[in-house]
C-alpha cells in the first residue's frame, strides 16, 4: 500500500514538475504545432482516392515529419533558453557595473514588468541591487539546467505524440474516407480540448477552445495552400 502511494506521489510530482517547466501557453502552442503538422498529411488523403499501401506511406511520412520537427523544436527551445539566460546574465553584469547605485536602480526598473514596478519603492530597488551584487560570478554564466532539458523533452513529446490519436483511425479502418472523417473529428476535438485547457488558465475556456479550432483549421489551410 505504501509503495503504491509512493509511486502515485512520485507520478504526481513529476506531472507538476512538467507543468512548471512548460507553461500553459507553451504546451498549447506545441500541441497546436504538432496537430497542424499531422493534419497537413492526413487531409492530403482526401484529395485523391488512394490505396492502402499509399495511405500507410503517407502515415509513415507524417510520423517521420513529426519526429523530425519534434527534435528540431526541442533543440530550438534549448537554444532559446540559452539565449534568454545569456541576456539575463548580461543585464545583471551591466547593473553591477553601473557607475552609481541610482543608475543601477534605474536599469533594474527598466527590466521589471510595468505592472509590478509601481508597487516597488527605491528601497525595494536598492535591495534588489544589493542582492544582484552578491551573486557569485559562476551563477551569471549562461548554462542549460536540468529543468530546461526536461522542458525540451516535453516539447518533443507534445509535438510527436499529438499525431498518435489522429492517425489511429487509418490503422483500424480499411475505408479511407471513413478513417479520414474520424481522424478529422479527433483532430478537431483535440484542438478544442487544447484551447479549453489553456482557457482555464487565462479565462473564457469555451471561447478559447473554439478559437483554437478556428486558428488550427486556418493554419492547416494556409499550409496546404502553400504546399506544406
Keywords:
single chain; 228 residues; mainly alpha; 9 helices; 79% helix; elongated; disordered N terminus
What does this structure look like?
The model is unreliable at 1-19 (pLDDT under 50). This protein has nine helices and no strands. Helix 2 packs parallel to helix 6 and helix 2 (24-42) packs antiparallel against helix 8. 79% of the residues lie in helices and 0% in strands. The protein has 228 residues and is mainly α. It has one domain. The radius of gyration is 23 Å and the shape is elongated.
Could you write a compact summary of the structure shown?
With 228 residues, the protein is an all-alpha fold. It has 9 helices and no strands.
Secondary-structure topology with pairs:
Blueprint: H1 2-21, H2 24-42, H3 52-96, H4 101-110, H5 122-134, H6 146-161, H7 164-172, H8 176-202, H9 205-225
Distance between the termini: 52 Å
- Beta content: under 5%
Order of helices and strands: HHHHHHHHH
The class by helix and strand makeup works out as mainly alpha
Task: Report the sheet with the most strands, covering strand number, pairing sense and barrel closure.
Answer: none
